[in-house]
């Protein structure tokens, strides 16, 4: 009989290098025990996540239905936006791990550059074609919104297979998902004015709620995606598929008034005559659009440039992953703050607000170029998120004030296409620049200054006719 260890008990079975039986049964037992513990932990986590998600969803539903939004169907659009953001966050986490964090900085830049270049190419077609296409699709916008979700779901599943097999379809599928996100933003933007309650709501208030719902969806989706990557790189994409299926169902269940376009007319985003007979938006709208395009460029630029430069030039001795999380949190806080104060832009002057925001973004970029530190990096992320969101809400206020109701949906959708294109161009510039902090932030400062001058060149008329008074500002 083998001796017994008084501290540890009888010895275990000999390993494969000994003279006894192979240790395979013992390994199998350990594997089964680990698998059982993992399964129990997964069930516990899933149960807790399900309860938390249910409570949060109930709160979101109650907030979305406030002030008559439940009667017009605006609440359904708000919930749809949260579901879409949840699914998009899962895809973002999956692609970030596959294209960015799992490879070196040089290879990651090449991966993301290819991804963004493929994204920019279809925008040459999307920008001029999507607006007229949606004009002809005006009696089926619910299905158009649903199609953007269903298409993203299918492509997420294709990307999941490509991740597992190292297939060539990863980039085309990722491209399709991103273009689907942009198309969704455009179609959703056209639906918002049609669902506004008759009293107590404005475009600013509605889009503030939509943005807060998207923030909620992202906050839930991102950690869920991170947890799923611990199981497998394809799991967030598989989960995104089912989330997109749910989003598709929510889109089809939107009220029928989303499809109604009686009395609506096309709009041109040019202040000059184009011979098309379309309604031409006023110079105030054009100026706000130019300013917002600069702000959206800044957002795309910082997203890509910071993602790479913080890997090469970390600050405060922190890891690149932690730094990126801090900057992303700062941008989210800024965006949330912009949404929270968005309803105030109607009491103030939205025309001046949007110009001040561009100057504010330029100043923050200039300070960061001179003083590169953790504090300035956080501040520029906070400023960019705040300026982009409040600038967009200021644009909404100007559109509601100066564009007649029958042209508002069309102008809103077209402006969203322009702003999405601005983000993509900014992201492209952020990738190709040298990874030198002062160089990138100096370029950002110059671009923002040029954008401000370009916007100021448009001089609104002293007295612009207001087709209809906007609804009363909600008491928020």
Polypeptide structure, described:
The protein has a two-stranded parallel sheet with strand order 1-2. By secondary structure, it is mainly α. It is built from 14 helices and 2 strands; from the N terminus they run ααααααααββαααααα. Helices cover 73% and strands 1% of the residues. α9 runs antiparallel to α12 and α10 packs parallel to α12 (374-402). The longest helix is centred in the first third of the chain and has 41 residues, at 24-64. It is globular, with a radius of gyration of 25 Å.
Determine Rg (CA atoms, Å): 25 Å
Task: Indicate the multimeric state.
Answer: single chain
Ends apart, CA distance between termini: 80 Å
The sequence of SSEs as H and E is: HHHHHHHHEEHHHHHH
The 3D shape can be described as: globular
Across the major sheet, the strand order is 1-2
Q: Count the strands?
A: 2
Ranges with pLDDT <50 over ≥5 residues? Answer: 1-25, 463-476
Largest sheet report: 2 strands, parallel
- H/I helix tally: 14
The averaged pLDDT comes out at 75
Q: Which structural class is indicated by helix and strand composition?
A: mainly alpha
Strand content bin: under 5%
| Helicity level | over 70%
């Amino acid at each position: 009989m083998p001796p017994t260890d008084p501290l540890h008990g009888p010895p275990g079975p000999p390993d494969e290098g000994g003279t006894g039986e192979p240790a395979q049964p013992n390994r199998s037992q350990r594997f089964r025990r680990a698998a059982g513990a993992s399964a129990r932990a997964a069930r516990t986590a899933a149960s807790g996540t399900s309860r938390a998600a249910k409570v949060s969803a109930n709160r979101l539903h109650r907030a979305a239905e406030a002030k008559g939004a439940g009667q017009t169907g605006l609440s359904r659009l708000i919930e749809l936006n949260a579901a879409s953001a949840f699914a998009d966050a899962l895809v973002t986490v999956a692609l970030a791990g596959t294209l960015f964090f799992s490879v070196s900085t040089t290879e990651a830049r090449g991966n993301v550059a290819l991804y963004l270049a493929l994204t920019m190419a279809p925008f040459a077609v999307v920008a001029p074609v999507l607006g007229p296409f949606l004009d002809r699709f005006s009696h089926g916008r619910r299905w158009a919104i649903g199609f953007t979700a269903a298409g993203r779901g299918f492509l997420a599943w294709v990307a999941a297979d490509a991740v597992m097999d190292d297939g060539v379809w990863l980039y085309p599928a990722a491209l399709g998902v991103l273009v689907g996100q942009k198309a969704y933003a455009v179609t959703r933007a056209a639906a918002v004015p049609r669902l506004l309650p008759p009293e107590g709501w404005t475009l600013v208030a509605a889009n503030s709620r939509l943005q807060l719902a998207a923030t909620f969806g992202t906050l839930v989706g991102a950690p869920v995606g991170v947890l799923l990557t611990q199981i497998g790189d394809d799991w967030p994409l598989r989960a995104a598929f089912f989330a997109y299926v749910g989003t598709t169902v929510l889109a089809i269940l939107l009220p029928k008034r989303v499809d109604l376009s009686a009395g609506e007319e096309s709009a041109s985003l040019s202040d000059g005559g184009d011979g098309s007979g379309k309604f031409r938006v006023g110079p105030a709208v054009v100026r706000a659009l130019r300013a917002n395009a600069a702000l959206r460029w800044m957002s795309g630029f910082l997203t890509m440039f910071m993602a790479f430069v913080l890997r090469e030039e970390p600050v405060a001795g922190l890891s690149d992953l932690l730094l990126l999380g801090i900057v992303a949190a700062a941008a989210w806080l800024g965006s949330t703050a912009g949404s929270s104060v968005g309803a105030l832009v109607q009491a103030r002057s939205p025309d001046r607000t949007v110009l001040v925001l561009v100057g504010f973004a330029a100043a923050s970029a200039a300070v960061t170029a001179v003083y590169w530190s953790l504090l300035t990096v956080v501040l520029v992320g906070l400023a960019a998120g705040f300026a982009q969101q409040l600038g967009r809400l200021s644009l909404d206020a100007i559109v509601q004030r100066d564009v007649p109701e029958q042209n508002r949906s069309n102008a809103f959708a077209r402006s969203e296409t322009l702003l999405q294109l601005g983000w993509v161009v900014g992201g492209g510039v952020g990738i190709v620049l040298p990874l030198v902090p002062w160089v990138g932030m100096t370029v950002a400062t110059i671009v923002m200054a040029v954008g401000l001058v370009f916007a100021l060149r448009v001089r609104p008329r002293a007295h612009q006719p207001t087709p209809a008074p906007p609804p009363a500002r909600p008491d928020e």
